[in-house]
């Protein structure tokens, strides 16, 4: 087995196995080959992870922030030093081309570690003058946090949750997707090597039931989920039972609007990045591409020509631009949507076929209307829908006519139009003349059904700390009895 870890779980600074847990296999999506055999966490494993986290957290929170930051800085450096090995592991686990993982996955995780390492020592409270008296605030960690990840960006998701949680003095128990269990363990190795005390970053494997055990545990103060809307509804409801804080990074059906004055080559490039990168398995993808009717034909012409040149193949070959879907189930789901698109009358202008194994061709539908299934539901595959529009008001109304609100993008050379339209788009992240760039400095998250809370940027502080208010009485107590 090409990527067998030392054991399934990482708890209290060490690898742990419990063979009583259900078998869990990781596959290389390009071939279906089993690359690692693991076990799901048993209740005893979950309990020991939470216990380790709870035991370690208070000492960690009491350390000077600059010390916590120093450890995370070291971890970022180790991650960068190991970029190739980590990228290869991520490619084996997800099927995403090495061409992508080498620049996007561990690199983005390292950015998060580095950013929050520097952020930690800058966190302060307020002093609040109250005449004779005063008050001040303290920023406190939440305690033990639970992180639950999706399979599309496994190491990035683990690091985007671990970095702020640890920087601000929390402990984390992380459950990766059962489909991509491996790179969170590699992150645990790196953090440990960087000097993170045992118990602060724990990894437990398993499916939704393991996630649910974490969400329902009274030791958990906060849950951060990256996943689909249906899962988000369940996790949010369960967290509400225990009045736990949540961050919900959920799905989307984001609009990308191309106005008639746009630089068409840039718009085509962005539409392709926003639909075919990671074989379309990106939550923020601009899967509804609204194109001004007057530029529709040249847009489609260039899009079809460039899409036809996408190189599919072995993800470990650095020349490969698009790999397979992550699993047979996902490939089947995507093919089902393509069939629906054809049946409902969309015009297939590129791809549309299964390409062997879990590969699906990059696919473009034109003449898509708002009511079609492919324009309403999140597909999470390489399927782009192109829709024509005539006016600014019309396209804004149509862009917003969805339960989702994760992201949106627009291409125009008209600066006033860009800002006017962005102000009216219902989305957590908007891009002007760009798409899908998510630097760690910028807050990230959705509105409407796409989620609550924000990851990254200064906004993350709100989601991994709480405020304690302290009132300081400076005189006698004025009691009427
Ligand atoms: P899922 O919602 O299927 O799963 C997400 C995680 O939740 C998995 O680890 C899953 O376990 C776990 N889970 C499932 N049920 C429960 C439960 N009842 N309680 C606790 N945990 C549970 O999402 P996918 O993994 O299929 O990922 C794709 C989805 O993620 C897409 O909708 C995509 O848009 C979204 N996503 C959102 C992002 C964002 O930041 N907004 C970024 C990336 C993806 P299991 O191992 O069984 O799957």
Automatic annotation (TrEMBL):
Its EC number is 1.2.1.8. The gene is betB. Binds 2 potassium ions per subunit. The active site is at 161 (charge relay system), 249, 249 (proton acceptor), 283 (nucleophile), 455 (charge relay system). Keywords: Metal-binding, NAD, NADP, Oxidation, Oxidoreductase, Potassium. The keyword Cytoplasm does not apply. PANTHER family: ALDEHYDE DEHYDROGENASE-RELATED. The keyword S-adenosyl-L-methionine does not apply. This is Betaine aldehyde dehydrogenase. It comes from Roseinatronobacter ekhonensis.
